[in-house]
Design a protein that fits this description.
By secondary structure, the protein is α+β, with helices and mostly antiparallel strands. It is built from eight helices and eight strands.
């Protein structure tokens, strides 16, 4: 289950559950926060619709248009919360990529040449092969991200180290640039999923992403 599917289920019923949804929420902090927000909003709506006894008489006397206005405001608030999450998935994905990279600060300083076996181990779970040699890959880990193990690489480029995350299970709708926490990045659609590239300084992000796509082979 990906984030879009999880949020659609949560938006439809914040208290609904399933093994697939629970597994996704355990591995995705953003969707867990979204469910908390939706459950809180649902609780506020329920309280608003349950009139205290002292207000029943006053509300019966209220004109119909005012009751319709209250109902409309509740619906609008719900749609606004869901819309923010569903219409901007790339923003959420970029933020989580930055958070993940920040959690592994040692990756930027890796300098030891990796063996072919170490690189293959990081790529194997995602069904990916790279033509890049180990002299270009300074860091390679298979990291748990949004419910899946994904390759987290640091490449040596002409502009310095660049982090690359190969996100087979995250289908970006369009190319998206972002800047956060001192990092510059881009997420680009790929043949299967998407690719995130981050740097700590000026760099040709599109050039790095293009090189990775050119040297990458998706496996069944």
């Amino acid at each position: 289950m990906n984030c879009d599917a999880a949020r659609l289920l949560i938006g439809a019923d914040p208290h609904a559950t399933s093994p697939e949804l629970e597994a996704h929420v355990r591995g995705c902090a953003a969707c867990a926060r979204f469910r908390e927000q939706m459950r809180s909003l649902d609780a506020h709506i329920r309280r608003a619709m349950q009139d205290p006894p002292q207000l029943v008489r006053a509300r019966r006397a209220a004109p119909p248009w005012r009751r319709w206005a209250l109902a409309a405001s509740v619906v609008f608030a719900t749609l606004a919360v869901v819309g923010v999450w569903l219409l901007r998935p790339n923003d959420t994905l970029a933020h989580e990529v930055v958070q993940h990279v920040q959690a592994e600060p040692e990756s930027w300083f890796a300098a030891q040449q990796l063996s072919t076996a170490e690189i293959d181990k990081a790529l194997r779970g995602a069904g990916v092969q790279l033509d890049l040699t180990s002299t270009h890959i300074l860091y390679a880990q298979s990291c748990f991200f949004r419910g899946h193990y994904v390759p987290h690489l640091v490449l040596q480029t002409a502009d310095g180290p660049a982090t690359v995350m190969i996100l087979r299970h995250e289908q970006a709708r369009a190319r998206a640039n972002f800047r956060e926490a001192g990092l510059s990045g881009v997420i680009v659609p790929a043949a299967h999923g998407s690719i995130a590239v981050l740097t700590r300084g000026p760099a040709n992000l599109d050039g790095i992403a293009g090189e990775v796509q050119h040297d990458m082979h998706w496996q069944p």
